[in-house]
Amino acid sequence: MTPSERSERAAATRIGITVDELRAHRAAGEKHCPSCREWLSLRRFNCNAGRYDGVAWRCRSCDRATKRSATPADKQRGAYKGAA
Ligand SMILES: [Zn+2]
After folding, report:
1. How many whole angstroms separate alpha carbon 39 and alpha carbon 50?
2. Is position 84 within any domain?
3. Is residue 49 part of a domain?
4. pLDDT for 79
5. How remote is the CA of residue 2 from the centroid of ligand 1, in Å?
6. Which residues are near ligand 1, the ion (C-beta closer than 5 Å)?
7. Alpha helices (H) in 1-84, listed in sequence order
8. Mean per-residue pLDDT over the chain, rounded
9. Residue 82 falls within a domain, yes or no?
10. Contacts 24+ apart (CB under 8 A), 78-83
11. Predicted confidence band of residue 52 (pLDDT cuts 50, 70, 90)
């Protein structure tokens, strides 16, 4: 098994689907948002050049929801790290 196959399997297991299902979603240009647990088009994710896949780990609406709920104290502690 190659390293990329291993990481594919780990990702599928984490989400609770098979590798085949994971590949089908990716082939359709979708990414899983672990925050709302939905498969969404990559367009629904913010860009994040620092990430391996170039997009934020969660979708825009989850990002926005966190921004709204983060308190000034959270921001000061660095608990909240928003997409640039
Ligand atoms: Zn989401």
Report:
1. 22
2. no
3. yes
4. 56
5. 30
6. 33, 35-36, 58-59, 62
7. 3-15, 19-27, 60-69, 72-77
8. 88
9. no
10. 83/46, 83/47, 83/48, 83/56
11. confident
* pLDDT (0 to 100) of residue 69: 76
Distance 1 CA to ligand 1 centre (A): 31
What is the domain extent for residue 20? 3-77
| 47 C-alpha to ligand 1 centroid (Å) | 14
pLDDT digits (tens, 9 = 90+) for 8-47: 999 999 999 999 999 999 999 999 999 999 999 999 999 9
Contacts of 5 (CB under 8 A, 6+ apart): 19
Alpha-carbon distance values, 38 to 3, 19, 30, 74 (Å): 26, 17, 10, 26
How many domains are contained in the chain?
1
Taking the centre of ligand 1 as the mean of its atom positions, its distance from the CA of residue 10, in whole angstroms, is 20
